[in-house]
Write a structure and sequence with these properties.
With about 375 residues, the protein is of the alpha/beta class. It has two domains: about 200 residues, Glycogen Phosphorylase B (Rossmann fold), CATH 3.40.50.2000; about 150 residues, Glycogen Phosphorylase B (Rossmann fold), CATH 3.40.50. It is built from 16 helices and 13 strands. The chain has a seven-stranded parallel β-sheet, sandwiched between helices. Strand 11, helix 12 and strand 12 form a beta-alpha-beta unit. The termini are close together.
């Protein structure tokens, strides 16, 4: 059996490497290749430079599209050209028992066309719901309509449509889509490792792109004129603005930029609190990683978040308009949080471990081909 993963439109292995996500993103496919005897192929939007990673993931075949097909500088022409790539790819891959899978909904049209031309099976995977995100971002009606159509095409042509949360599933089930029975819950995964509950920790860590959605302005304002220091991992267009704001408000922020996921996990394991301030989220991997590594998670009230965090049980939920995160941490410093940390760890083990999710995916592959 071969699983062909189509990367999100425009994304290469080099992009994964530069963003620090490479090690995390390839882990589940290395697990499936080594433990389930699957053949895995990555279809990336890179060129021959993507082949430099073959030694790091020898179990996986890499096919960089722009090693075989011309890349256009004009975005519109490139998107139109991508419609042809799905037809052309059938000459590169001729295995039987093929399952095509998308890494995200964005770019799924290439996988859909390939699925049609090769009569293979298709799983559309969404780590977050693209349509609901674009609605929350107040995109134009035309763009919203295009994302709606893309979602509908995915549902029409796929065998299964993976969503990462019950909230996303409910959102799509309440829309006027055909073939909603194909929607299946497959949460994001975490490679769970045990940790020492007795190790003393301190400090606050936050992780995410430095963009509006992550709402790091609110984070900085929450800790202005305090002696608490925040470790902030991530980069983006708002970096300079956030640096200036932290200086203006006398907030101690250690901006680390993009770093490798293994280093991220090491830093998480040394901090006591993980703070999330996003305006909206899907099934956030960094939050799940923080729970699995013994952090006390503090996150905003949001449907996707409260699906994971039960306030006062395995983490803490705050309301941005009413609560003060700094005061909340001061209160928590006077409490024994061992049970909170244990229950957070147990939640991830039961719902998001790499073994559970890879077994669930493999069972789906087997069911499709049978």
């Amino acid at each position: 059996m071969r699983v062909i993963l189509f990367f999100s439109y425009g994304v290469s292995l080099r992009d994964w490497k530069n963003s620090g996500l490479f090690d995390r993103e390839v882990k589940i496919y290395r697990n499936l290749a080594n433990n389930k005897n699957l053949k895995i192929t990555f279809i990336t939007y890179g060129d021959e430079e993507d082949l430099q990673y073959e030694n790091e993931i020898p179990e996986i075949q890499i096919i960089p599209l722009f090693m075989y097909y011309k890349k256009f500088n004009n975005n519109l022409i490139q998107i139109l050209n991508s419609l042809l790539i799905g037809f052309k790819l059938r000459n590169l891959i001729k295995d039987e028992n093929v399952i095509v899978k998308t890494n995200q909904l964005w770019g799924s049209w290439v996988a859909i066309i390939f699925k049609i031309t090769t009569r293979s099976s298709l799983i559309v995977r969404t780590g977050y719901d693209l349509l609901s995100f674009k609605v929350k971002e107040n995109k134009s009606r035309i763009k919203i309509s295009l994302y709606y159509l893309l979602t509908q095409f995915g549902l029409i042509f796929c065998n299964y449509y993976f969503v990462s949360s019950n909230t996303d599933k409910r959102y799509l089930m309440n829309k006027k889509f055909f073939f909603k029975n194909k929607i299946q819950l497959v949460p994001n995964w975490v490679d769970v490792n045990k940790f020492d509950y007795q190790t003393k920790r301190s400090g606050i860590i936050a992780i995410g792109r430095l963009e509006k959605q992550k709402n790091f302005e609110y984070l900085i304002k929450s800790f202005q004129n305090t002696n608490k220091e925040i470790t902030l991992i991530g980069d983006g267009s708002l970096r300079n603005k956030l640096v200036r704001l932290s200086e203006k408000l006398n907030c101690k922020v250690n901006f680390l930029g993009k770093i490798n996921n293994n280093e991220v996990l090491n830093l998480i394991s040394k901090h006591k609190y993980y703070v999330l301030t996003s305006l909206y989220e899907g099934n956030p991997k960094s939050l799940l990683e923080a729970m699995s590594l013994g952090c006390v998670v503090i996150a905003p009230k949001d449907e996707n978040i409260t699906e994971i965090i039960k306030d006062g049980v395995n983490g803490f939920i705050y309301q941005p308009d009413l609560d003060n995160i700094n005061n909340l941490i001061d209160e928590l410093e006077r409490k024994d949080l061992t049970d909170i940390r244990k229950k957070a760890f147990e939640y991830v083990v039961e719902n998001n471990s790499l073994e559970i999710i890879s077994n669930k995916e493999f069972a789906t592959y087997t069911q499709i081909l049978s």
